[in-house]
Design brief:
Structural class: mainly alpha
Order of helices and strands: HHHHHHHHHH
Oligomer: single chain
Radius of gyration: 23 Å
Number of helices: 10
Length: about 170
């Protein structure tokens, strides 16, 4: 007998079409973490529940506000901004979770100051002093872009535009 995460439990055929069993499985999953409606449905179908019954149960759970895509999006945005992620990386994570473009836009357009976050992330990683050398500025730019910040956010975090004397070989 194998134990651990690698073991995939599949429901038997009698319980696969039982709405009560599907609801119990959904609530067990929701007890561990928040899901979008699409993620929850996909997880239940992977476990072997009937697709039609899963769709009905997920719709019922959404009606009871036990599954809420907006709440999921807001929570994910909060968690990822706390980890120093920028809007592009967060948008990618929301899209991977199966949210629609209007839901993603609503979650990201909550009045959050991305420039301030980019500056704080740069400060935590590299210190308070803005870099003067071009190579160090480029390294910090790449780091912030990887984190999902736009060029405007990165420029603000590095103290504005790059000065001509910072560019190697400039007169």
């Amino acid at each position: 007998m194998a134990f651990g995460r690698g073991v995939r439990r599949v429901v038997d055929e009698h319980r696969a079409a039982d709405a009560g069993a599907v609801r119990a499985g959904a609530l067990a999953l929701l007890g561990r973490r928040e899901y979008t409606g699409g993620e929850l449905a996909a997880a239940l179908v992977r476990k072997g529940y009937a697709t039609q019954v899963v769709q009905e149960v997920v719709a019922d759970l959404a009606g009871e506000h036990l599954v809420d895509d907006v709440r999921y999006a807001e929570g994910l945005v909060r968690a990822l901004t706390a980890r120093g992620q920028g809007p592009a990386r967060i948008r990618q994570a929301l899209r991977a979770a199966g949210l629609t473009d209007p839901q993603i836009a609503a979650a990201l357009d909550n009045g959050f100051d991305w420039q301030t976050l980019a500056a704080e992330v740069r400060r935590r990683k590299f210190g308070a002093q803005a870099p003067r050398e071009w190579s160090e500025r480029a390294r910090q730019m790449r780091f912030l872009q990887y984190r999902g910040f736009s060029g405007d956010h990165v420029a603000h975090a590095l103290g504005g535009t790059i000065q001509e004397e910072d560019v190697p070989g400039a007169p």
